């Protein structure tokens, strides 16, 4: 009996040990899968937050840069935006009010709201959340040099804080810090977390509304160069609304410098005893991701119970007790089930498909053309607006370089502006410069927008400008064109002086030769010993007269124009060609000449002065226009660029009568012109040849076999392998 009892006791102990071991294995496997589940949910939440902050930032930029909308129009837009972006709590444009305008401002608001409205301050108790509705902490603002009162709030039907109208945002201890930081930097700023008027936690994004005629400088007062601010308040409780996250996972934003959190998802789930035991053994599953944004020092943290909410302990206890005798089979079954579940949840293709669906939904929710590119400038994703602008399909666009699908250019760029390269290299937000445009199948389209770094790539948001640019946009474009033409004229004038100086050197040699003759005569008479003073005086007076003549010539040249040294920088030859063609557009408008361009898309940069290089191209194009203008019917001018071992080759050819055989050898001589009498000074080609040679290149001319003339120049560019450039001057073909 004792042995039987001992045997039963040992069997029971072994049974209990096997059951406990199997339960520990089950709990460990479930905890590990729950940890991966939490990590995936945290990464999904972070991707959604980044995309929604980027969309809000783009919307805030449009709100700050657009002209003020009527009151009713803003409310309609805001109500429409809240349907697509429910995390936006309130938005509006708040004006700058100087001290002298305070009385008129308060009177206007009082008439609008049918009761007295004053500019007020709100000072809550230190260390407490803002009790906005407590009248004890509100007071009329004292006299200040300027104010930024809360004036415009939209949408009206979703915003219960009408009582806050008149709050001086700049003097508020909660919001004022971010407002001043935004005004000093003339850029976006985000407040610390605060309590909104409806009791929810959230943050406010602020961006200044700059004046058109002035720029913000560091040595001026915060708001002296602004018309006001644009702000958008986000509710943290709605930042993840519509995102399919598990119900038992809590998500929050944790400050990286102090113990402060912003709850985003906080489910209320009861924790079972088995879950508490699993948490004590293995810890609660959680995930902490890197910093969300440099200007918003918060990171995403997620946490879940040790066991998922659908974990039922009773069946597991019964199953492990019944199958303890078949431990090997049970372990094999559980391991196979665990392996299948892990493969299902960690399937990279399924994860990529889910991520792609989320990205597509976010991109399509934005009203502008949006593209995401990687570090190699290849398109990763784009929305329907971008496909419509590029007139292509998603299958052709994704994976291709943006320069092939929707190339970005800056009109009249002198240093090869490439905002996308700046964004990828410097990892900062880059607004598109004025006169940016994209080449589309429908032609040139002017755009505005900004480029935002996104990991190892960039997010590009583009807004198409209307075809007719009234107001400031067209005025700024005309001013830039005028400045560029003035720079070209100054460069042409300086180059003309250099060539004219070489052409009139003989004018200075004549007085110098006469001075030498007069002095030799005077010295000879002095050496004879009985020189006639009158003759010596005559020789010296003649020498002085020639000195005056030479000085007069030199002073005339110096007063004509100041010397200009070429500024050699890295230049995109194709951009210089586009600029020259744009400057020649007015001259071509009333001609019967067709212009063809064949520009290679993969050219190296060259070292040259951008204005002088455009001067050479414009001179060659004008010469081609003169040649084709002398013939009847339609003429043709072709401008092409290509790469070779030596660097870059540019050709300008025409369908004119060609260069006469007796003129071709002297075509680059100073003051020699092949045009009719009075048609030119004969310096254009000489200046062009001198400029190209100062860049280390060479300029050639020849006649084409099919008729017409061709001018070609080559500029060096290191480390570029293509068919070699010719090393000798091309022989002219028969005319």
UniProtKB/TrEMBL annotation:
Q: Please indicate if the UniProt record lists Lyase as a keyword.
A: no
Which part of the chain is the Histidine kinase domain?
A: 503-719
- The principal localisation class reads membrane
Q: Where in the cell is it found?
A: Membrane
Domain CHASE residue range list: 141-243
The EC number(s) attached to this protein equal 2.7.13.3
Molecular function (Gene Ontology), one example: phosphorelay sensor kinase activity
Q: Which InterPro entries match?
A: CHASE_dom, CHASE_sf, HATPase_C_sf, HATPase_dom, His_kinase_dom, HisK_dim/P_dom, HisK_dim/P_sf, PAS_4
**In which domain of life is the source organism classified?**
Bacteria
User: Which Pfam family name is an example for this entry?
Assistant: HATPase_c
Q: Give the matching PROSITE patterns.
A: CHASE, HIS_KIN
Q: Which UniProt keywords apply?
A: ATP-binding, Kinase, Membrane, Nucleotide-binding, Phosphoprotein, Transferase, Transmembrane, Transmembrane helix, Two-component regulatory system
Q: Its catalytic activity?
A: ATP + protein L-histidine = ADP + protein N-phospho-L-histidine
Cellular component (GO) terms are: membrane
Put simply, this protein is called histidine kinase
């Amino acid at each position: 009996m004792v042995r039987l009892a001992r045997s039963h006791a040992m069997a029971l102990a072994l049974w209990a040990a096997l059951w406990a071991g199997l339960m520990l294995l089950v709990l460990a496997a479930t905890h590990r899968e729950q940890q991966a589940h939490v990590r995936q949910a945290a990464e999904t939440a972070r991707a959604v937050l980044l995309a929604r902050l980027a969309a809000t930032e783009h919307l805030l930029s449009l709100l700050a840069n657009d002209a003020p909308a009527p009151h009713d129009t803003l409310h309609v837009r805001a109500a429409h935006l809240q349907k697509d972006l429910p995390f936006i709590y309130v938005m509006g444009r708040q004006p700058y009010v100087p001290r002298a305008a305070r009385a008129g401002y308060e009177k206007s608001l009082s008439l609008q709201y049918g009761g007295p409205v004053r500019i007020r301050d709100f000072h809550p108790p230190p260390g407490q959340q803002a009790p906005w509705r407590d009248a004890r902490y509100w007071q009329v603002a004292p006299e200040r040099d300027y104010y930024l009162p809360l004036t415009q709030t939209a949408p009206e039907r979703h915003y219960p804080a009408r009582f806050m109208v008149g709050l001086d945002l700049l003097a508020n201890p909660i919001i004022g810090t971010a407002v001043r930081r935004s005004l000093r930097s003339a850029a976006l700023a985000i407040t610390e977390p605060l309590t909104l008027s409806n009791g929810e936690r959230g943050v406010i994004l602020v961006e200044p509304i700059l004046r058109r005629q002035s720029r913000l400088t560091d040595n001026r007062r915060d708001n002296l160069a602004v018309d006001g601010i644009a702000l958008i308040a986000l509710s943290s409780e709605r930042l993840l609304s519509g995102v399919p996250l598990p119900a038992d996972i809590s998500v929050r934003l944790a400050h990286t410098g102090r113990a402060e959190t912003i709850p985003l998802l906080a489910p209320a789930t009861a924790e079972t005893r088995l879950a508490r035991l699993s948490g004590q053994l293995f810890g609660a599953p959680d995930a902490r991701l890197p910093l969300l944004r440099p200007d918003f020092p918060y990171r995403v943290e997620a946490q879940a119970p040790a066991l998922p909410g659908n974990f039922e302990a009773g069946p597991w206890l019964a199953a492990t007790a019944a199958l303890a005798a078949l431990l090997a089979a049970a372990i094999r079954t559980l391991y196979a089930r665990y392996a299948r579940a892990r493969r299902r949840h960690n399937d990279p293709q399924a994860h990529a498909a889910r991520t792609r669906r989320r990205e597509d939904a976010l991109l399509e929710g934005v009203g502008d053309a949006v593209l995401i590119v990687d570090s190699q400038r290849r398109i990763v994703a784009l929305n329907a607006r971008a496909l419509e602008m590029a007139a292509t399909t998603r299958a052709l666009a994704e994976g291709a370089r943006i320069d092939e699908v929707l190339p970005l250019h800056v009109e009249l760029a002198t240093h090869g502006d490439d905002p996308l390269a700046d964004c990828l290299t410097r990892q900062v937000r880059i607004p598109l410069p004025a006169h940016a445009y994209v080449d589309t199948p429908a032609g040139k389209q002017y755009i505005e927008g900004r480029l935002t770094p996104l990991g190892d790539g960039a997010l590009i948001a583009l807004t198409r400008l209307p075809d007719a640019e009234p107001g400031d946009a067209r005025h700024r474009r005309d001013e830039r064109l005028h400045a560029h033409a003035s720079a070209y004229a100054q460069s042409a004038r300086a180059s003309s002086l250099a060539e004219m100086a070489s052409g009139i050197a003989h004018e200075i040699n004549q007085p110098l030769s006469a001075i030498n003759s007069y002095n030799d005569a005077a010295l000879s008479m002095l050496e004879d010993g009985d020189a006639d003073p009158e003759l010596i005086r005559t020789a010296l007076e003649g020498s002085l007269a020639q000195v005056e003549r030479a000085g007069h010539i030199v002073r005339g040249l110096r007063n004509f124009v100041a010397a200009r040294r070429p500024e050699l920088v890295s230049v995109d030859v194709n951009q210089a060609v586009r600029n020259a063609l744009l400057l020649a557009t007015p001259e071509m408008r009333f001609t019967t000449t067709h212009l063809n361009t064949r520009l290679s898309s993969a050219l190296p940069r060259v070292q040259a002065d951008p204005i002088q290089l455009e001067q050479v191209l414009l001179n060659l194009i004008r010469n081609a226009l003169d040649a084709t203008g002398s013939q009847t019917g339609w003429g043709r001018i072709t401008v092409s660029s290509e790469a070779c071992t030596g660097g870059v080759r540019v050709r300008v050819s025409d369908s004119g009568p060609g260069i006469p055989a007796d003129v071709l050898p002297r075509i680059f001589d100073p003051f020699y012109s092949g045009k009719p009498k009075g048609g030119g000074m004969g310096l254009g080609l000489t200046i062009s040849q001198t400029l190209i040679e100062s860049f280390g290149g060479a300029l050639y001319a020849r006649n084409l076999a099919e008729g017409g003339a061709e001018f070609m120049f080559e500029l060096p560019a290191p480390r570029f392998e293509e068919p070699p450039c010719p090393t000798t001057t091309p022989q002219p073909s028969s005319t």
